[in-house]
Amino acid sequence: MIIYQQTIGGRVDFAGIGVHSGEPVQLSLIPADSDSGILFKIRSDCGAIRSVAAVSANVPATDLSTIVGTPGGVHAATVEHLMAALYAMNVDNVVVEIDSGEVPIMDGCCEAFVEAIERVGLVKQDAKRRYIRVVRPVRVETANGWAEFVPHYGSRFEIEIDFATKAIGRQAFSGELTASMFKAELARARTFGFMKDVERLWASGHALGSSLDNSVVIGDDDRIINPDGLRYPDEFVRHKTLDAVGDISLGGGRILGCYRSFRGGHKLNALALQALLRDHSAHDIVELPARRRDIVRHSPLIAAVAAPAYGPQTL
């Protein structure tokens, strides 16, 4: 695990479309100072630029993606893939400049973001990284699933899904999150959806930019429509794990613990994170020196615990 904070070694630019808006998007990642965190600078329709910190207190909705913004103000939707890449590749501080209300979907995963970060490299900064250490289990449940944080000296994800369709069924993925593991096992896993839901999503103004170029699509006959098939036999649970990494990254610090979920999604990920951050007996804030016994404790995290108003969760 890394002791000191890091930023990227140079500016990188991306162009694409929003998977829901269908509109073109320009996005840039720019190096930032220590203790800046991930800061979105969003250009509104009138040209004004507003800044929003990527923390759970600024997540007003998790309907079809994870959104950062302010109620009634500017926002950036579908941030989870970019956030997952930044978190897994150990970027602590960066400015995200975006000229639209949605992060570009690229090809449905976050491989392009990972490759760009590797291309410009990382710069070690003077400030130490602070971790949110899980010291006792925290669990949330819904009618169909559950999620929990449990103590673990590392950053581990254990994700399980269960879909009625034969194309997916029950799948599980688990692993210790490192940059190399993420790049090899998760970064190329694409978002997915069902053909039967397309007309409903279009009618509600969603999935307007979705296509076989950026989504795995399951047909009415329970078969994969994409001509090239799947990138992994269990690509669905790998993408759900990628999403979980991105959603959990909004804690405002690195999680030192294990995150588990069953039949989860953006809403459940967000609810579990909120539960952990609210319970000061379940976590503490620490810095990591070379030896475990020398961990330095800090005051409980209070910056990211405001309760958002979550909308209905759909796939």
TrEMBL record:
One of its GO terms (cellular component) is membrane. It comes from the Bacteria. Zn(2+) binds at residues 81, 239, 243. Its EC number is 3.5.1.108. It catalyses: a UDP-3-O-[(3R)-3-hydroxyacyl]-N-acetyl-alpha-D-glucosamine + H2O = a UDP-3-O-[(3R)-3-hydroxyacyl]-alpha-D-glucosamine + acetate. Belongs to the LpxC family. Catalyzes the hydrolysis of UDP-3-O-myristoyl-N-acetylglucosamine to form UDP-3-O-myristoylglucosamine and acetate, the committed step in lipid A biosynthesis. This is UDP-3-O-acyl-N-acetylglucosamine deacetylase. It comes from Plantimonas leprariae.
